[in-house]
Structure formats: structure tokens, C-alpha cells
């Protein structure tokens, strides 16, 4: 490791975080609380496979699979087919 008299980027960053540690802590807590509010809305956005457009062929297939086979609309099934299997 070489000796240097100049202060590097990470040293300056660390000193700034130490100097303003209480502000950093408060900002971090406020960010986590605000993210917690938005995180509560996430399950509603993801239910019923929110990536499938309504009325599309894939949506029709999902409805048919749910009605006939009882498969959940949010379940992912992969089927592999090969010549030797």
C-alpha cells in the first residue's frame, strides 16, 4: 500500500458522513418510513398477474386455466419438453 498525503474520495465521504451523522440518520429513517407507506400499496398492484393486459390471448388463457384447472393467476409454471424426456 502506498503512502499518500492527499485525501481520497472515500476518506472525504467518510468524514462527511461522520460529521453529519445525525442528519444522515434522520434522513435515512424518514426515507424508510416513506418507503413503508408505499410498500403497503404494492400487493394490490401485483395481484391477478398485473403484467397481463386485460382481454389479451394470454389473459383469456389464464382465465381458462383458473376456471378449468384451479390454477392461481399469479402462479408461474414452466414446462420443459425434449426429445429424450
From TrEMBL:
Organism classification, top ranks?
Bacteria, Bacillati, Bacillota, Bacilli, Bacillales
Name the source's superkingdom.
Bacteria
Name this protein carries in UniProt: Uncharacterized protein
